[in-house]
Write a structure and sequence with these properties.
Length: 479
């Protein structure tokens, strides 16, 4: 046998064993020595093939070749395991089909045939969304878009979810995020057979995306490759992909949230949180004596809304949230719960937002307090200003004047309230804003309470035009 033939056989054997060698031989112009990150990804794929890793997450900047190297990996895995199957899904059937087309093109290429000469496509199983090799027991490769059905199929070797979120608009939609997660758990996972490896490839748009939820559940189970566009020294991670100057220009012209998510792999809801936990003031529950105890309640509008009532100690114009009622229970239950918590803390002034059912709710709470002969002023307020504007305008005051408990029981109303409060994002749609709206109302009502206190200290009638918009439901009780 001639030396050239021997070299070709040795090269083919090396490529069959080593995925990165296969990549370099298939496309040497793309897999250059300067692109060291591709070697990192290839080595992680190799660990999948060797059974050393079962769960892998890849998040790198756009146009860096993550989908290309993934297509090569699918083809290489099928070459080495021609009776097994792969599932690769994406945010739309169009994109998933494109990935499928790429893998098939690799398999029918001359370069691939030199490494895996026995691997051929089955002539009667050629649908772009579901095709097979002629050695396959069933299917070899199938795909779908998020939300699509996958019935009667199972993947034995590899399950890939490649960019399940399309763009920033989808990433900021809690509805789309929840539907994507629901589809992943009910459809994508259901098609994985025992022992199947899983790869997640995505821009980290949101902490509530599939990757975010998987890491929150069991971060230790996943091997992660996360590569930001710029290093800590503001240098390009790879000058062959984009130069430092090009990335700095993209950083300049892009919104900071988009830049951080799409290029730096910092989920947008981290950079876009209105109330990050580390920016909030906390206090230790040490039985502090307060100047007054006041409360604010945003009663639930619809079945999915939460009633949020905050009991706060007021001292030196600072608000210390002492207790929280945060529930989706019906008004007939929450009316009595709220009255009870007001009496428990000795609250003397509460403002209840008068939405569609707020006035009735406030009247009923006032009647319960009257029947209990408890002295508490109940007032209502109608907020006509845009809710998001109110929340943003008051955010600085909230961070400066509102104090939250440093500890509270897991699963308690306080805990549920605080989690929702600290997940509100500055931009985009928030599914629930009850907690943030209530804290905003508390700050507004505390300012109004200070005005009332000054008026009373000057012996001015409390229900003067100064208090337009507020009126007593519990008129027989003094403030």
């Amino acid at each position: 046998m001639k030396s050239n033939a021997i070299a070709a056989l040795l090269s083919a054997e090396l490529q069959r064993r080593d995925f990165y060698e296969f990549c370099k031989a298939y496309d040497s112009s793309f897999f250059t020595p300067a692109k060291t990150y591709l070697k990192t990804i290839a080595d992680s794929f190799q660990n999948i093939a060797d059974g050393k890793t079962k769960k892998l997450i890849i998040s790198i900047p756009p146009r860096a070749g993550k989908s290309y190297i993934s297509s090569l990996f699918c083809a290489w895995m099928l070459g080495n395991n021609p009776t097994e199957s792969i599932m690769r899904n994406s945010y739309s059937m169009e994109i998933a089909s494109k990935f499928s087309y790429d893998v098939r093109n690799i398999i029918v290429s001359a370069k691939y045939s030199k490494v895996f000469p026995a691997v051929k496509l089955k002539a009667d199983r050629t649908s772009i969304t579901d095709w097979a090799l002629d050695t396959a027991l069933q299917g070899s490769y199938f795909c779908s878009g998020v939300g699509g059905s996958i019935t009667g199929k199972g993947c034995s070797m590899l399950a890939i979810l490649d960019d399940p979120i399309k763009n920033i608009e989808d990433a900021l939609s809690s509805t789309i995020l929840e539907k994507t997660w629901s589809w992943y758990t009910s459809t994508h996972l259901a098609r994985m057979e025992s022992g199947c490896a899983e790869i997640q490839i995505a821009t980290r748009w949101s902490v509530n995306d599939v990757i975010g939820k998987l890491l929150e559940d069991n971060e230790a189970a996943w091997h992660q490759i996360t590569i930001p566009a710029l290093t800590p020294e503001d240098k390009s991670f790879c000058e062959e992909i984009k130069t430092t100057a090009e990335y700095l220009e993209l950083k300049r012209i892009n919104d900071v949230y988009i830049w951080n998510a799409e290029y730096m792999q910092l989920p947008i809801t981290v950079g876009g949180l209105l109330y990050p936990t580390n920016e909030l003031k906390r206090y230790h529950d040490n039985n502090e004596r307060y100047d007054s105890i006041i409360a604010y309640c945003d009663s639930a509008d619809t079945g999915s809304d939460y009633l949020c009532a905050l009991i706060a100690g007021l001292k030196n114009k600072k608000l210390f949230i002492l207790d929280v009622l945060f529930t989706q229970e019906g008004m007939e239950i929450t009316e009595r719960k709220l009255a009870s918590i007001l009496m428990q803390h000795g609250c003397k002034f509460i403002t209840i937002e008068s939405n569609s059912a707020g006035k009735i709710f406030a009247r009923n709470v006032g009647n319960i307090l009257n029947d209990s002969q408890y002295s508490c002023k109940v007032a209502t307020v109608h907020n006509s200003q845009n809710k998001e504007t109110r929340i943003l305008v008051h955010s600085g005051i909230v961070k400066e004047t509102v104090y939250f408990k440093d500890t509270f029981a897991a699963g308690s109303d306080y805990d549920l309230f605080f989690k929702q409060f600290t997940s509100y994002i500055k931009i985009g749609k928030n599914k629930h804003d009850d907690s943030v709206d209530a804290v905003t109302g508390l700050v507004e009502s505390s300012a109004q309470f200070n005005v009332v206190s000054k008026i009373l200290s000057r012996r001015v009638k409390p229900f003067s035009p100064t208090l337009r918009g507020y009126y007593s439901i519990n008129r027989n009780v003094a403030l």
